[in-house]
Amino acid sequence: MDDILEARIEDMPGMSFECGCGRRHSVDISRLVVGSNILGEIAAGLEPFRGGKLLVISDNNTYRAFGEVVINRLLDDGFRLKSFVFDSGDRMLLPDERSIGRALLEVEPDTTFILVVGSGVLSDIARIVSYRTGKQFAIVATAPSMDGYTSVGSSLVVGNKKITYYSHYPYAIFADTSVMRRAPMIMIQAGFGDVLGKLTALADWHLARDVSNEYYCGTIAKLVRKGVDKCLESAGGLAERDEHSVRCLIDALILTGLSIGLAGVSRPASGTEHQLAHYWEVKAVEEGKEHPLHGNSVGVGTVVTAMLYELASEILPEGIAYPRADYVRSLLGKVGAFTNPGDLGISRELFTDSMMNAMYMRDKYTVLRYCSQKGRLEEFAGIIAGKLYS
Ligand SMILES: [Zn+2]
Ligand SMILES: [Zn+2]
Question: 326-362: buried (b, 16+ CB within 10 Å) or exposed (e) per residue?
């Protein structure tokens, strides 16, 4: 069972093992390819679908970044395909009814497979459309911006509300480091924020095990920690788009995404920092406002959660390892990412509201609920707001 701790990402698809935690863990994705200049491997990986007709979905940006190159290569190799490029104009592409409906219209009776070239929003759209039309899909990732490539759910905006819909795993994920290192810096910063969030997510998982006797898997926690640590070690190169640093970031994002599927719960990848980020995102969507990228919010949420852990240190059970807030801040600073909720456009009022209420949005035991049960949350939230909004 420790094999997975030593395995390369590319060798993980199909792995399945009985674990000491009492559960069987498996990686239900057929193919993961991470590397530099992997165009040939993309074509080879899609070989099983050569007999049908592919629908290739991208948007103006991702088409320019890599979509056009991928399409030309597939056409040269004799694939039959139709390309659909979202033109979102000045509007940020949202995974809403309009975009999903638009993509659905491009699925034809003879479409057999969907290939999406893009990051979070585009892959969420392709995931739900392929699932609902009963087709497999694959992702050519264009930015290391979040850990959702390996997700089974689609995070959508329906009726102006942010809702996660059950969908399915991609057949394959292709991550070309030579393309992804050129992604907009804000997306690299976001991906790094999503990775940092695992530090507090793992602390919360540990806390939930100790305080509310929740299921916990030490092997998965170790796997996530290993990927995160490797990414943190090389974080210094991210601001210069160093390819090795970007590779470590991609690996960490894929690994933590896979860990959710392995555990069967989102615990290893999301805790308080995600509850806060989610709260801020939901409020923005309800008000029809654009919100920062998921990972930018998670990065800030990680700073806040680390501050809360520090304040709660005297009342915590023994042995809970959590990151120091200054450490998280300095890591975010290395890539020039946001560190303060004010940077994300969050008012002091909304911030305090989120501290008191984020724990109710998803039923998950985290340090927020722990502090609340101890009768200290309001006091701690006030101290943190005072520090962040001085
Ligand atoms: Zn386990
Ligand atoms: Zn996340």
Answer: eebbebbeebebbbbbeebebeeebbbbbbeebbeee
